[in-house]
Amino acid sequence: MNLTRRPVASLWIGETLHYLNQLCLKSHLVQGHPVTLYCTDTVRNVPAGVEVRPASEIMEINRDIVAETSASFLSNVFRYKMIQKTGAIWIDCDAFCHRPFPEDQEHIYAGHGMRGALNCGVVAIPQTGRLMDELLNYYDNLPDYPAWWGNKQKRKMDKLPSSLPKAVRIYQTERTAFGPQAFTHFAQKTGDFEKAMPPETLYPVPFQLNDVFYDPHCNVEGHFTDRTLSVHLYTNGTRPWWRKNAPLKGSYADRMCEKLEIDPSAALEE
Fold first, then answer.
1. Which phi and psi angles does 160 have, rounded to 5°?
2. DSSP labels for 172-200?
3. How many domains does the chain contain in total?
4. Residue 89 included in any domain
5. Which end of the chain is more exposed for a tag (fewer CB within 10 A), N or C?
6. Taking a C-beta distance cutoff of 8 angstroms, is the pair 118, 110 a contact?
7. Which residues are 89's β-sheet partners?
8. Which of 223, 181, 182 has its CA nearest to residue 202?
9. Are 45 and 16 in contact (CB under 8 A)?
10. Dihedral of CA 16/19/25/30: which sign?
């Protein structure tokens, strides 16, 4: 592979990739992007060509916090610290590279779903600047409540045991408070919200329709435009059956696996 395009990177907490994660990581290699996967453990099934590095090069991962939240929780701060340190484009491990990312674009992020908020599944922002400062200050110095919360969220958080770490209480109150909510809020605060790309560039299929990737009778590509660069597969929201079974023949997931020579049956969720 001729890996001459902008580097991309992600984080994996655990020992095994699901086949969709293998597919998505390899898709960036196929499009010419060098891929680094920062890992907390020895991962046994990383696609050939992906560079594996310890997550500790970017930040220490508190496994106790992960146990109280989710494996993806700390990726929300990890991604910005990684961008600040390396300048690579952040990619979630369930973002499929449809076309290469532009070489000369500092801001790569987009709205998603049907609400207009930004997602942070694929992110490029300047390594220095107000947006980076605001994001890292939020994570490094957690407020009593996120600034955008109303009284309903505050009351819900107040009912949780005060013995829990603040990060866990915020997460248990509203799990996206560290991901899309934070990114949207601070991009609005700094004026960078207006630099977002349209949803079809990175999230052509709304989250609410994520089953279409496994349905052989759905025209997934009907959601794409000539501006589509990445296709988010939303594995965190996928129904358990799809995570534990190979995709149906002819579905988008099946066709992409066949195209990139990924064997779903060898990496199903147990």
1. -80, 150
2. HH-GGGGTHHHHHHHHHHHTGGGGPBPHH
3. 1
4. yes
5. C
6. yes
7. 8
8. 223
9. yes
10. positive
- How high is the pLDDT of residue 114? 65
Using the CB atoms, write b or e for 146-168: b if 16+ within 10 Å: beebeeebeeebeeeeeeeeebb
Is the alpha carbon torsion for 56, 181, 252, 249 positive or negative?
positive
Residues 186, 11: Cα–Cα separation, whole Å: 22
Contact between residue 8 and residue 25 where contact means Cβ atoms under 8 Å apart: no
First to last CA, the chain: 32
Return d(Cα 3, Cα 207) in angstroms, integer.
30
For the segment 6-50, what is each residue's pLDDT rounded down to a tens digit? 999 999 999 999 999 999 999 999 999 999 999 999 999 999 999
Q: Domain for residue 100, yes or no?
A: yes
- And the tokens for 64? 């106790």
3-state secondary structure (DSSP) of residue 89: strand
Contact 127, 83 (CB under 8 A): yes
pTM: 0.95
Residues spanned by the domain of 154: 8-204
The fraction of the chain above a pLDDT of 70, given in percent, is 99
Tokens 């207009």, located at residue: 116
Burial category of 195 from C-beta neighbours within 10 Å (exposed 0-12, middle 13-18, buried 19 and up)? middle
Residue 31 lies in a domain: yes
Rounded CA separation 249/101 (Å)? 29
Report which residue type is found at 201: T
Query: 235: which 2 tokens?
Result: 């594995």
